[in-house]
Specification:
Strand order of the largest sheet: 3-2-1-6-5-4
Radius of gyration: 35 Å
Distance between the termini: 42 Å
Largest sheet: 6 strands, antiparallel
Number of domains: 4
Structural class: alpha+beta
CATH superfamily of the largest domain: Histidine kinase-like ATPase, C-terminal domain
CATH topology of the largest domain: Heat Shock Protein 90
CATH class of the largest domain: Alpha Beta
Number of strands: 18
Number of helices: 14
Shape: elongated
Length: about 475
């Protein structure tokens, strides 16, 4: 665990301002470890000048590495010819330090200064050194001059499949890894060839901007059929840009997947739109047929027409969505607005919802929409057919209780009278029961509550539909 502010104030000789600065420095350590493929440590002097503590450490996310020590481990500085100069005199030092198995391993320690220019800590890079890698290590340490907010703002991370290039003050390439050489077609060019000529390669653009504007720059560009993303980080020393670190990665597959998903969303929206149009056509045909039928058949056809129109309204909502889930609150609200218009004289429909958003898979959203229509329609008709005065009150409620979704409809009436009736009303309740149990995997109840009839459907959100 890295040192907290309390740890710094009680175990080291730094004050509150220094503790805040070192806490921000710690945010860079995981990135630097992945960039250099080394263990990165933050050394800070203890309460006396004779000892130092490891305040934080980070290991690369890939590979197996020998660790130098753990957090809060005490180090006696009079025995340290590499760590002591950075902490006591502010001098960067490189050398070797024996690992636990007695194997000498390269260690580089760079001082961290406070606002007064005094050394308060040291950042150490511990691990085997390969050819020309010291340039990368020194560039990585200079990144500490940037704000730690850069990490989150640019989603900074380094993976083994990422290319890394370091440019010096004049724009000369002084380090590149093999991935960068392959991605930018540099395998046949010497590593020291100048790279800041705009006519050479499109990867130069973010590098030039970072160098001129002294801020990190992220940009995408195409190289043939490959899509590359580069993040250029200015390397600062005493406020001056002394180079640029470029991280480049191949994001071709990612962009292709995004395009495929976009096309999929467009196709799904078009399907819902066409289904809605076809259902509206069916509803129109049923309406025309109803005008030429007997009263009993006419009522049955009108009931069917309303159900088809309700499904069409649900697909209108689905056609607007680009996600795999649908907000059940929106579905219920728009259906109830439609039904208020239909029953503006015969019933007063009110409803409440205890959540702003209840996301359901589209199949469950369609089933819930049908249930909303059937129960509210049944409540409006039940009140009207039992002699209720104009203004029959129907109350609907949608709520989430733990992991369950509950939709209920309540109106004045008697359950015994409702159950003794037959016809379309019984069909509506049977539809609700089937939808609740089969499609939603839930339960449907119908009961008397304080002189009212209350219909309730309870179910859980299914992730596998």
């Amino acid at each position: 665990m890295s040192f907290t502010t309390h740890d710094y104030l009680n175990c080291t000789n730094v004050g509150a301002v220094g503790a805040k600065m070192l806490r921000e420095t710690s945010l860079w350590l995981p990135f630097l470890a992945d960039l250099t493929h080394k263990e990165v440590l933050l050394f800070v002097r203890g309460q006396t000048a004779e000892t130092a503590l490891i305040a934080d450490r980070a290991l690369p996310s890939v590979g197996t590495y020998i660790s130098l020590g753990d957090e809060a481990d005490a180090i006696r500085l009079h025995n340290e010819h590499i760590i002591a100069p950075a902490l006591l005199r502010g001098v960067a030092t490189c050398g070797t330090k024996e690992a636990h198995l007695g194997i000498p391993v390269p260690l580089s320690v760079y001082p961290v200064f406070d606002s007064a220019g005094l050394p308060i800590a040291g950042v150490g890079m511990y691990g085997r050194l390969v050819a020309n890698e010291q340039v990368l290590i020194e560039a990585a340490v200079k990144l500490l001059a940037l704000s730690p907010s850069v990490i989150t703002a640019h989603r900074l991370h380094v993976m083994p499949q990422d290319g890394v290039i370091v440019y010096d003050r004049s724009g000369r390439m002084v380090y590149r890894n093999e991935v960068a050489a392959r991605l930018l077609h540099l395998l046949d060019r010497p590593a020291s060839r100048p790279r800041l000529r705009l006519d050479e390669s499109s990867d130069i653009i973010p590098v030039v901007r970072a160098r001129q504007e002294r801020v990190p720059v992220s940009q995408e560009w195409e190289s043939g059929e490959t899509v590359l993303e580069g993040t250029a980080l200015p390397l600062l020393d005493s406020g001056q840009v002394t180079g640029v670190l470029l991280i480049v990665r191949d994001i071709t597959l990612l962009r292709k997947k995004e395009i495929e998903l976009l096309h999929k969303d467009v196709v799904i929206q078009e399907v819902h739109h066409r289904v809605k149009n076809n259902l509206q056509t069916v509803a129109s045909l049923l309406r025309m047929q109803a005008r030429r039928s007997t009263p009993e058949v006419r009522e049955a056809l009108r009931e069917t027409e309303r159900r088809v129109a309700a499904i069409a309204a649900i697909h209108t909502i689905l056609a607007r969505e680009v996600n795999d889930t649908v907000n059940a609150v929106t579905v219920a609200d728009e259906l109830l607005v439609q039904m208020r218009h239909e029953w503006n004289r015969g019933a007063e429909i009110s409803w409440q919802c205890t959540a702003e958003e209840i996301l359901l898979p589209s199949t469950q959203a369609v089933s819930l929409g049908m249930i909303v229509h059937e129960l509210v329609q049944n409540a409006c008709e039940h009140g009207a057919q039992n002699g209720a005065p104009v203004g029959n009150r129907v109350r609907a409620c949608l709520q989430r209780e733990g992991g369950e979704i509950c939709f209920s409809v309540e109106n004045r009436g008697n359950l015994a009278t409702l159950q003794s009736d037959d016809g379309a009303r019984h069909l509506g309740l049977q539809i609700v029961k089937n939808l609740a149990e089969t499609n939603l995997g839930g339960r449907f109840t119908l009961q008397n509550v304080a002189g009212n009839v209350c219909a309730c459907v309870v179910f859980t959100i299914r992730e596998d539909v």
